[in-house]
Amino acid sequence: MDNLPRRGLAIGILLFAAFMDLLDVTIVQVALPAIGRDLDAGSGALEWIVSGYMLAFAAALVTGGRLGDIFGRRRVFLTGLAGFTLVSALAAAAVSAEMLVTLRVAQGLFAALMVPQLLASVQALYAPRERAPLFGIIGAVSGIAAVVGPVLGGWLVDADLWGLGWRSIFLVNVPVGIAIVALAAKFVPDTRSARAMRLDLVGVALLVAAIAGFMVPLIEGRELGWPGWLWALVAAGVLFGSWFVAHSVRRMNRDGSALLPMPLFRDRGFSAGIVTQAMFQGAMNAFVLPLILYLQLALSFDALGAGLTLLTFSLGAMVGTGFVVPLVPRLGRVLVTAGALVMAAGTLATLWAVTTGGADFTGWQSAVPMAVAGIGLAMLIIPLVDVALATVPVADAGAASGAYSTFQQLGAAVGVAVSTTVFFAVTGDDWSREHVLEALTASTWISVAGLVIAAGASTLLPGRAAVRAHLDAVRAAEEHDDAVAF
């Protein structure tokens, strides 16, 4: 910890790689219509291009973190980043929708190797009392990625650099990835955990099987006409999900290294937080992607125009962060509940602006309601983890955070799958503006329903007294760690 500039540079390098991952999630959504036209991709393939990445990332996230603990975080980070960069180059050369979906899944798996090493390295290189500003920077970078992704993706598609079109959104990762690999190999220390938990590869396999059992029918059912074998997959998903829970309980009792910390789900606040997180992430993605599709397919917005329409949403979230942070200790779960409802109101107001604008709608008409939705997002997401973990023992905070990240990605993927399935089911073969608007309206109500459920679940989160007790426990743990370290 004594080489301050060096460790700061190391975290900066890891943070830039995490930024690249966040950018990759948002940048693809704006390019979907162009990808669909070029590769003759159906609605199911377009859903998999987005959801496949998220699901692979979610399934491998905890395992990626544990691999870094065991084999060294720099080594695992470099493996993930090199693979992510190579697969990005291959994705830019994809000649079919099926090939691109496969490569997006591979991207998600490699991202799950590199992203967890950021927070783990912060914990390894910085004393507890030094970490809060870094967590704030990480949050700010997430907000910047949300702003930059749609705009950069739209510009790259419309600019059609060297005739590459949408392919440039993947190629942009290549020179950046190569540069980060070179810098990380030199400046990122190869830290590892002194007491790393064992890998739970059986848990990963069971979780993937359970997810596939539900997601394949959800995405493919409409196009295939719901044949019997899809319902068999649903039944298999239930079976594998039950098996996963039983395996995780046994694994926790045996050595505490289960993929998900099942005993923590007995904590009401933790479980309420998981539901709130998953429903919020699903609701956000259930609205954003159908809106982008409506703007481009029904109103003939170019990709950049569609991306700019989302700008005030991200800016609202960044502005909201500034005034929300000081309110967390005083308001706690009230902020989370209010944030979900404010976001729902902003989402409905955005739909109203789009509807009343009709064929003459411009992005300016939705600027204010989108900003309101962004402020609601900040009110919800900033306090959520701290409040939800308020009654979780400090020693279990790392495992609990990993579970939250997993359900965050799963919620986002399910939100995309459900809303786009409804969107394309309503449109059918009729792509008139009025009909596509009906599809957007249906998807928006799914998003609002998710936010209302999130608001309801948030009322079961721990109250202010529990939050204050949690902050005191964290402070005491930091003081103990400082005493041991120094």
Task: Provide a descriptive summary of the structure in words.
The chain has helices at 4-39, 43-71, 73-92, 97-114, 116-125, 131-159, 168-171, 173-187, 201-224, 228-254, 268-297, 303-309, 311-324, 328-331, 333-357, 367-388, 397-427, 433-458, 464-485. It has 486 residues and is an all-alpha fold. The chain starts with a helix and ends with a helix.
The pLDDT mean sits at: 85
CATH architecture of the largest domain: Up-down Bundle
Question: If helices are DSSP runs of H or I spanning 4 or more residues, what is the number of helices?
Answer: 19
CA-CA gap between termini? 11 Å
Supply Rg.
22 Å
Low-pLDDT sequence parts: none
How many structural domains does the protein architecture include? 3
Total strand segments:
0
The percent of residues in helical segments reads over 70%
Strand-pairing-aware structural class: mainly alpha
Q: What is the CATH superfamily classification of the largest domain? A: MFS general substrate transporter like domains
- Shape descriptor reads globular
**Range of strand content:** under 5%
Order of helices and strands: HHHHHHHHHHHHHHHHHHH
- What's the level 1 CATH class of the largest domain? Mainly Alpha
